[in-house]
Amino acid sequence: MYRNSNPELCSSVLDSMRRYISWIDIGLIANDAFTTLLFELMLVDGLLDQLRAAAAGVVLAVVSKRMDYKSKLALLQSLQIRRVFRLVAGDSNSELVSSVASLLSGYATELLECSKRLNSEDGKGVSLELLNEVLPSVFYVMQNCEVDSALGILQFLSVYVSTMKSLPGLTETQLLHVGQILEVIRAQIQFDPMYRSNLDSLDKIGGKKKIGWWSSGKIAVSSSEDRNAEEVEASLSLFYALGESLTDDAVRTGSGLLGELVPMLLSTTFPCHSNRLVALVYLDTITRYVKFVSENTQYIPMALRAFLDERGVHHPNVNVSRRASYLFMRVVKLLKAKLVPYIETILQSLQDTVVQFTKMDSASKELPGTEDGTHVFEAIGLLIGMEDVPPEKQSDYLSALLTPLCQQVEVALLNAKSRNPEETLAQIENIQQMITAINALSKGFSERLATASRPGIGLMFKKTLDILLQVLVVFPKIQPLRCKVTSFIHRMVDTLGNSVFPYLPKALGELLGESEPKELVGFLVLLNQLICKFGTGVGEILEAIYPVIASRAFNILPRSDIQSGPGGCPEEVRELLELQRTFLIFLHVMATHELSSIFLSPRSSGYLDLMMQLLLYASCNHKDITIRKACVQIFIRLIRDWFPDHGKEKVPGFRSFIIEAFAMNCCLYSVLDKSFEFRDANTVVLFGEIVLAQKVMYEKFGNDFLFNFVSKGFPNVHCPQDLAEQYCQKLQGNDLKALKSFYQSLIEKLRPQQNGSLVFR
Q: In angstroms, rounded to a whole number, what is the distance separating the alpha carbons of residues 163 and 259?
């Protein structure tokens, strides 16, 4: 009655009607009277779009109503939805097209569910027939309509692809649909050509667009002139995504079309290759399929050219060339020995890049982090550091690279005091860059090569270390430089082995000059590496420097919890927490590498009490369970080291401290606290160490420990006498697992009786 005179009223009626459909009897709407009316409203031209769209919304509600799938299929079949297919060809911005697009998406989704849920062959056949009928319109909407209309389609396509992947094989029609989906994806992920001029800039428009879902398929690479940057970038992105679904074996053997596509890709230079995004996705795609090249070595020259010519390292865009350097390094790691015949060619191709890097003014502020250009040196180091390289050539290669880098550092050090502050800052940045390159270069050389088979290589690195240690003397307060030199010392410990020892006193002496928490953390990490590598071999060095370390650490760290007070700086708190954690790990590394005697040396013994208090507090209260475990392990080692089975007590007062303080607070009170969560895996491991500590204390101290623990500790926590006696029996037995199980059950029984009365003593 009112469709022409008051279409807004009719739209409101339909919108209200739509909201009721999900819970009323579907027969009230899905009948000839209403279905005929709704389709008439949608299909008649000249009516208000709002009214036609509202009618489509009601039909979608009918389609989406929950019911058994046999009834659902009958309903969907009765709608003859093909009548509305032509409507999506209208104005893609209109409300009608958007609503019809949603209707088609919902209809297709329901048909897909019917095809999966119905058991009868007839039901499945009808479902797939209707689905095949609607899919062309679904694809049309995806390619031609606005984003809001396409989102529902996107979700449907994702489910459709998942369903297709679960089938044993695809029919011709299904294969056609998968191909069409790929075309839809390719069209949708393309950048709008209007933004082409922005794509070489790292801004919000030019940033790399990502897509969160993919379908596997195949593409062909074309180098024809009519392929623009947007199409090429999208096709390469699809080819890259194809790799997500392939096994390593499939890539290596070049299964399917890969055997044709990868060589084609390697040999291709696109007319739009100067475009940043095309170049980046091209390099990423080659890297993804490089295992094919590893298996098919005839393609190595093609792969090298792709990385080393204007498509990669020599690309005019610095972002691309740096990314190419990083990816090339990854490729070298994989191919390594297979690249030996090509080393000369590679070095010649990279010569200008290396020379440019070593220029005094080449320090780049644009690209910090993982793509700073030094990966070229890491790649070269991996290549020339192999034992397959003849010794003379290897020495020549390394010398040709190290010499200019070291010369740059030496020149900068000589000129450091004669320059103004601005020039000094530039020198510092340049030195940082040179050290980073040297560090990267050294990663390719093993300890065996540098010390045993080719000591001449080791000699070159020793001379380099000598030069870089001067940086600490000339710039003692420049934290970034100290970090870079420390990093190189780490490398030399691994590369030079024992022959690094003569350089350690000077290196450690210079590095120990600063007391800031961050500096001390880096220093302790270096010491941990030295201890793990050389064990008691660094005993003399540690005996000399441990007192200084302990003094600094205990002066900086508070005696209890590190907390941020009013107006406190979160960064300072974070640095203190990191220092505390690293210092405790350092103590653990010392104790577990037979170096605990250093704690008792005349210069160190003055810090013993502070160390014990810190270890005790951390073993009971540290928020990191792994640190608590490490502290308990330290106590176990100290008990074993300082209390020989037969002999005099090494540390007066230590026995009573362990029995009265450590045993009570850590082994009893701390585990009774409700925060000690037995459902946490790390906590269970910590508990195992605490139980082991009790066993060790009984072995070393006998009844002195047992009497104090049971007669003083247990009454404090209201432990019944019979449970105390059972504990004694378990402790005196030989079954550690049974002791742990019993002690856990004991703790869980005692917890309800504590009423929050336990305090750290």
A: 28
